[in-house]
User: Fold this.
Amino acid sequence: MTAYPLDHTHDTNAYGWPTGAEDPQTDFPIQNLPFCSFAVGMEPFRLGVGIGRMIFDITAAEQAGFFPEGLEAELAACRSGRLNAFMALGPASWRRMRHALFELLSLATLGQKRTDMATTCLFPMAAARFDVPVTIGDYTDFYASIDHATNVGAMFRPDNPLLPNYKWVPIGYHGRASSVAVADQVRRPHGQTKRPDDAEPSYGPCRQLDWELELGFFVGTGNAPGHPIAIGAAHQHLFGATLLNDWSARDMQAWEYQPLGPFLAKSFLTTLSPWVVTMDALAPFRVPARPRADGDPAPLPYLSDADDQSAGGFGIDVTVELRSTQMREKGEEFDTIATTDFSHMYWTAAQMLAHHASNGCDMRSGDLFGSGTISTPDPSAVGSLLELTKRGQAPITLSSGETRSFLVDGDEVRMTGRAVREGYRAIGFGAARSIVVG
Amino acid sequence: MTAYPLDHTHDTNAYGWPTGAEDPQTDFPIQNLPFCSFAVGMEPFRLGVGIGRMIFDITAAEQAGFFPEGLEAELAACRSGRLNAFMALGPASWRRMRHALFELLSLATLGQKRTDMATTCLFPMAAARFDVPVTIGDYTDFYASIDHATNVGAMFRPDNPLLPNYKWVPIGYHGRASSVAVADQVRRPHGQTKRPDDAEPSYGPCRQLDWELELGFFVGTGNAPGHPIAIGAAHQHLFGATLLNDWSARDMQAWEYQPLGPFLAKSFLTTLSPWVVTMDALAPFRVPARPRADGDPAPLPYLSDADDQSAGGFGIDVTVELRSTQMREKGEEFDTIATTDFSHMYWTAAQMLAHHASNGCDMRSGDLFGSGTISTPDPSAVGSLLELTKRGQAPITLSSGETRSFLVDGDEVRMTGRAVREGYRAIGFGAARSIVVG
Assistant:
């Protein structure tokens, strides 16, 4: 997919020393340092980390000699402009790089180099183009929110919303890697649909375009071919997380999905935030996994681990905002449509990965899996229009007075996420943001 | 996946001039020239074409100056040892290369160079290791045999075997690209299963391991991002075909597949033949698409093309053979378990590709799609044990007297395929062959 110029910054004013990292509203304080692949002008894409409203160019900093010795392998792995080779080096390397970046970017240690670095290595996010920072070998999408599965199941099987396997199996399916992108446009797909009153299906523009709000997790290191990943080790295989919008053509999905699952209803585009927030940055925001309800089965041993149970969830608030053409033309801001919380997920990221590899499936550095739509028990805190509007039966009303059952052309969808914990500096994910075009 | 040494030759005797291409039984006469990626000893994988029982090394021939001028771009694209860059050059380049190879390998034109070429460019298949000759970006599996869909549907929904969308939609799902391999072993996967009498599911070795006999098609050139591929142009986007064994863990599949489709029941391994037979080589074997039965709907316009209707099928006989440990230890040959015929497929390869891209999904050079299990209206000419044994209820008996409901460890499965037409030299696909290990 083509990369497009985006404005992913929230703080458009300048704060403090050039990066703006001290702004309490920034997604990108020194505690975060998420990775991106960015380009300025016609130059090739290269790897950077976000700091305030700036991008710190890793390869430029290497060339300028700012990094200490001992990071040769890590810096060499970063030169391709994609994270795969760096990911493959493993957690010790990830941590070594993180600590070096802390040192370099901490005001206290910069001393005389500060001006040099600002000149040679810091680029404003607003002036950069972004691309997916990883060559994604395979993309998988899970279905880890029991509330989402129940909400959707109730629409199709009112008497039997949750299938018997749900509480045993982290349900997932293979997705399309080629259409995962950082993209500022989503083209309304064409496809086969058949409405209840139609005598026959027809091919044409999707009439029920929807988003799905998810987190995506990048596999850092894979497994030995043919061998599972133990649940207790799964977390260490994860490199980081991003925001993921699993665009969904609901009318196409309803007609095509049996018996083999979603296909063209999903494969036209999956939008990511340009930023990969590392698992190390997310460590302070780990929370207990969602407790099983009374009567729910315990996970089978290959999915069961005490540490994962006590700290396998993440306290991450995720938000979907919408702005119509009319709102944009009047200079109005986005409406917040839904705010939800990742800590409600039924299955943890480690359980998803351990399950994925439990048959020996080859996992590779750079593989991506989505969590599935992030919904909660609260009907207003759900991750799709399908759920918010009861499959279009209960349209929502925007601040402009317009209503929406599903998305119309010109609608702009922005997803953001922040990890928040009392006593800790909040960190964020930037935005996954696209406009619907016809 | 690791590549393993394989013996894919059928003719182990030497025939005629060194290649054995004149052997009437060979899969690889001069009319075929399928591509492979092969290695000898510890050398890197490189591209070759099959001729008789030999491999013609394209890059060695380039270095020795055997190719005529005008093929610079094609030969440069072949140096990586994978076909993707060559595929991306498009049909005119594929044809230019094919004609040059014809010239080089035709006995009549070899003259004085024959001895040189045999010394520097021809390697016996029996001494080579093979790998998938393409870096597969995305792998998709279709379900294009209406007989297979009906047979399987009848097991799960006796009253309603064929779902209402089948005759309108070329049903398919995303598969796992990382586990597509040329592999001489298939490791019995572990996974969650729940038998009807089990109170709870458990995790352990698959008890219902099965094959699925398919053809795989490689996309040669992709689409403009976001744009469909017209049905009339779809055939020109296809580079070639291979044999594909879609290994299936039936007990895992039955428990996991709802509501999002097959996942871990398939993603442990997909075995390919090492050979990609080009669409140009298959051109003489094109046959009319399977006629629609009375009352069946005509394909929607985006799937309808007169040329595809008259010549979108392929007359390819495909065979599954099985040999148990006992048979192998006694030096016995394989039993032929099923012979089926690709011309019975309900959807053509061009329809599958046009449908796949109909939502704008990014198709890339090197993408692979499977046809789905190749079954026919004849209950003995079907492409899976599931169908042959009626889901294990009617075991088959081998020549050794052993019976099989599903595969046991040590079973060796070999799939072969030949395109046959009166008045034409038959061509073949080599073999997709793996042994089950526990």
Summary: The longest strand of chain A covers residues 427-437. Confidence is low (pLDDT under 50) at residues 1-16 of chain A. Chain A is about 20% helix and 25% strand.
